[in-house]
From TrEMBL:
<dbReference type="GO" id="GO:0019843">
    <property type="term" value="F:rRNA binding"/>
</dbReference>
<keyword id="KW-0699">rRNA-binding</keyword>
<keyword id="KW-0689">Ribosomal protein</keyword>
<keyword id="KW-0694">RNA-binding</keyword>
<dbReference type="GO" id="GO:0003735">
    <property type="term" value="F:structural constituent of ribosome"/>
</dbReference>
<dbReference type="InterPro" id="IPR019906">
    <property type="entry name" value="Ribosomal_uL6_bac-type"/>
</dbReference>
<feature type="domain" description="Large ribosomal subunit protein uL6 alpha-beta">
    <location>
        <begin position="91"/>
        <end position="164"/>
    </location>
</feature>
<dbReference type="InterPro" id="IPR000702">
    <property type="entry name" value="Ribosomal_uL6-like"/>
</dbReference>
<comment type="similarity">
    <text>Belongs to the universal ribosomal protein uL6 family.</text>
</comment>
<dbReference type="InterPro" id="IPR002358">
    <property type="entry name" value="Ribosomal_uL6_CS"/>
</dbReference>
<protein>
    <recommendedName>
        <fullName>Large ribosomal subunit protein uL6</fullName>
    </recommendedName>
</protein>
<dbReference type="Pfam" id="PF00347">
    <property type="entry name" value="Ribosomal_L6"/>
</dbReference>
<comment type="subunit">
    <text>Part of the 50S ribosomal subunit.</text>
</comment>
<dbReference type="InterPro" id="IPR036789">
    <property type="entry name" value="Ribosomal_uL6-like_a/b-dom_sf"/>
</dbReference>
<dbReference type="InterPro" id="IPR020040">
    <property type="entry name" value="Ribosomal_uL6_a/b-dom"/>
</dbReference>
<feature type="region of interest" description="Disordered">
    <location>
        <begin position="1"/>
        <end position="32"/>
    </location>
</feature>
<dbReference type="GO" id="GO:0022625">
    <property type="term" value="C:cytosolic large ribosomal subunit"/>
</dbReference>
Length: 177
C-alpha cells in the first residue's frame, strides 16, 4: 500500500481544482497548472480535498498512486507559494548580473555567458555572487538552476564555481611535495 497516496491533498483558501477525465487543473493566486494522470488512478475533488485512488492493486497502479498524489501536491504548492532555488557563486572575479530577461555570468571564460530565462521562470541576482530562480513549476525551476550550475560546477580543490545555497562540496587535498 502507498503511504503517500493514502494522504489526501488539501486545497488552501484561494485555490480551486477541477477534474476532467484524467486531467486535474489547479488555479491559485500565482497561476494555473495542470497534470494528466495515467489510467491506473482515479482523481476526485470533494470539499476542498483532492483524493487519489488506485484502480486495482497491481504494482504499476500502486506506483502511480503515490506519484500522482505527489504531483498534485506539487501543483497546489506551486500555485500558492511557488518554488525557489538559490545559487551561490564562489571564485575570484566570478559574478552574475541581470540585464532585462538575460542573466550575464562572468565565470573566468574568455567571454561572458548569457543565459535567457525561459517562460514561466524568474531569475534575479540580488548580489553579484547570488542567483535566485523562482517559478510555479518545480521541475522547470530545478532544470533552469541545474543549467546555470552546469556552466561552472564547483571543483573539489578550491571550491570555485556555482553551487546551490547550503550545498556541501567535498574538498580534496592538493599535491604534496
Amino acid at each position: 500500500m502507498s503511504r503517500i497516496g493514502k494522504k489526501p491533498v488539501e486545497l488552501p483558501s484561494g485555490v480551486s481544482a477541477s477534474v476532467s477525465g484524467q486531467t486535474i487543473e489547479v488555479k491559485g493566486p500565482k497561476g494555473t497548472r495542470s497534470f494528466t494522470a495515467t489510467d491506473d488512478v482515479t482523481l476526485s475533488v470533494e470539499d476542498n480535498v483532492v483524493q487519489i485512488n488506485p484502480r486495482g492493486m497491481s504494482k504499476r497502479a500502486r506506483q502511480q498512486w503515490g506519484m500522482s498524489r505527489t504531483m498534485v501536491a506539487n501543483l497546489v504548492e506551486g500555485v500558492t507559494n511557488g518554488f525557489k532555488k538559490e545559487l551561490e557563486i564562489q571564485g575570484v572575479g566570478y559574478r552574475a548580473q541581470m540585464q532585462g530577461n538575460t542573466l550575464k555570468l562572468n565565470l573566468g571564460y574568455s567571454h561572458d555567458v548569457d543565459f535567457t530565462a525561459p517562460e514561466g521562470v524568474t531569475i534575479t541576482a540580488p548580489k553579484q555572487t547570488e542567483i535566485v530562480v523562482e517559478g510555479i513549476d518545480q521541475q522547470q525551476v530545478g532544470e533552469v538552476a541545474a543549467k546555470i550550475r552546469e556552466w561552472r560546477r564547483p571543483e573539489p580543490y578550491k571550491g570555485k564555481g556555482i553551487r546551490y545555497k547550503g550545498e556541501f562540496i567535498f574538498r580534496k587535498e592538493g599535491k604534496k611535495k
